[in-house]
Amino acid sequence: MSFTATYLEKISASNAANGNYYGNSIAISADGNTMAAAASYVSGSSNQANGAVRILTKSNNAWTQSASIVTPSNSNTDYFDYALAMSADGTTLVIGVMSANGTASQQGQALIYKLSGGTWSLFQTLTNTQAGQDDNFGESVAISGDGSVVFIGATRGDISAQNPNSGVAYAYVYNGSTYASTQMLSGAGTVTDCMFGASIATSYD
User: Fold this and answer.
1) Beta bridge partners of residue 49, listed in sequence order
2) 32 burial type by CB count under 10 A (0-12 exposed, 13-18 middle, 19+ buried)
3) For residue 193, which phi and psi values (nearest 5 degrees)?
4) Residue 28 belongs to what H/E stretch?
5) SS3 helix, strand, coil % of the chain, rounded to 5?
6) Chain centroid to CA 82: how far?
7) DSSP conformational letter for 91
8) Which of 62, 86, 144, 171 measures 20 to 30 Å from 111, CA to CA?
């Protein structure tokens, strides 16, 4: 079986500026008509490099920006949009914010946005109540095709006190109203500084 990749087009932001890091991370729907692209150093209302996610839609073989999602915290140290994942139908988006502050400094979080009536709105903020400082929760994210299961990587999370910064991943399942944490995942034989969970992928179902 052979596969040949063909260059189609270059997609750039309509309001791009030097140093925006547009395209730093990307997610796309199964039909290829909805795309989320990170612009990691776009300035926000405080004129800081807060980051943003541009939503683009394809129609008549042309891509246009249909929405822009900015960090709710208005912080330039959160690493908003560090990782992105999109459901198959292009209506649920997971954004990793690996250095967001929580109960611990820069423990990280993940934001789930849903598209309804043509508007992207924050649906839920995922945090880890067991997270410690600099756990990097949200460094990687994945979502099942139907949007019912979400995985979040925390590359400096601790399996135990004996194995600090080993890295873990967390599974969340949608129960009809919210995404609930169901399991913490770790690798067999994982030891200190393994960075388990640095990248994540999941099947359609």
Assistant:
1) 43
2) exposed
3) 65, 30
4) strand 22-28
5) 0, 45, 55
6) 6
7) -
8) 62
Residue 1's H or E segment, with its range, is none
d(CA 128, CA 16): 34
Q: Which run of H or of E encompasses 100?
A: none
Q: CA 182 to CA 174: how far, in whole Å?
A: 10
Name the pTM for this structure. 0.85
Rounded CA separation 52/115 (Å)? 16
- Extract long-range pairs of 100-104: CB within 8 Å, 24+ residues apart: 100/73, 100/75, 100/138, 101/75, 102/127, 102/131, 103/127, 103/129, 103/131, 104/131, 104/132, 104/133, 104/135
Query: What is the band of 47 on the pLDDT scale with cuts at 50, 70, 90?
Result: very low
Q: What is the residue-wise DSSP string for 141-195? A: EEE-TTS-EEEEEETT--SBTTBTT--EEEEEEE-SSSEEEEEEE--TT--TT--
Question: Pick the residue with more confidence: 52 or 33?
Answer: 33
Instruction: Return the number of other C-beta atoms located less than 10 Å from residue 72's C-beta.
Output: 13
Tell me: pLDDT of 149 over 90: yes
Cβ atoms of residues 96 and 139 within 8 Å = yes
CA separation for the pair 173, 112 (Å, rounded): 12
Q: pLDDT for 70-110, tens place per residue?
A: 887 766 666 777 899 999 999 999 999 877 767 666 778 89
